[in-house]
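Design review, sub-item: ligand-bound model
Attendees: FS, YL, KQ
YL presented the inputs for the 2'-monophosphoadenosine-5'-diphosphate complex:
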Amino acid sequence: MNKYAVIGNPINHSLSPTIHAQFAKQVGLSMTYEKILAPLDGFTIAVKNFISAGALGFNITVPFKLEAFDLVDECTLNAKTSGAVNTIKVENGILYGENTDGTGLVNDLCNNLQQSIKGKDILILGAGGATQGILLPLLECQPERILVANRTKARSLKLASSYSEFGKVCGFGLDQIKAKPVDIIINATSASLDGKTPEIPPGVAAGALCYDLMYGKQTPFMQWARKNSALEVTDGLGMLVEQAASAFAFWHGKTPETKQILKFLRETID
Ligand code: ATR
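KQ shared the predicted structure:
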């Protein structure tokens, strides 16, 4: 049997098994896709055990994406630049790493939400792992510029300078954001997990597409954006499905259709 999985901690909430089962059905592929809870200090062991059991590939989620990067034998430019891996393919004992998060976001923006990124002014809130995962694919779409604003300014300055060879990207403190509107605001902070939204001037959301990388009907950031005249507001469910589709293509060489599963998940999850 073709064995796949997602490894994380926590992992119970993961929708990946549902998504990959639907993709496999679409292309007539027989495979298993399970959830593996790895102890916080036991990622490598969990990976070794799964490979010994015959794994052909797996996804990696919070908090192991950086450890996964250290574990792979080879990786794509995208994974290398972000320093994080969310998809591993196992072939003849060699681990190939990719990071499909950014492609997932770009595909959701461009294909599902019909947004063009080229020439746009983009503001990303946060400068942690989530931002690292999306910067290169966004820059490859040639936005006018990307502003990365973080509560801890030093972190966004460092991140922006490490991506400057790929396009126009500048780092700021959250407290330096001006009330001037931008085209797209992406919330890549983990503030929603604490029921909070980053503190930024409300005027910046006016007329913007506001995108929360977290998913759920009403994240605090989405509520903030709706209250502050955003043109369009969305969560990251589309990105979740699209990153899974890119991972599926990385493993199986076939890109699945995503609209049906996205519609199903929208109707069933909170
Ligand atoms: P992830 O892998 O989810 O990106 P991370 O690397 O810990 O997690 O990064 C979390 C990000 O959310 C950081 O940019 C963090 O800001 P700091 O670097 O200043 O810590 C940001 N963040 C978390 N809670 C926040 C809040 N309440 N307001 C603003 N930013 C917040």
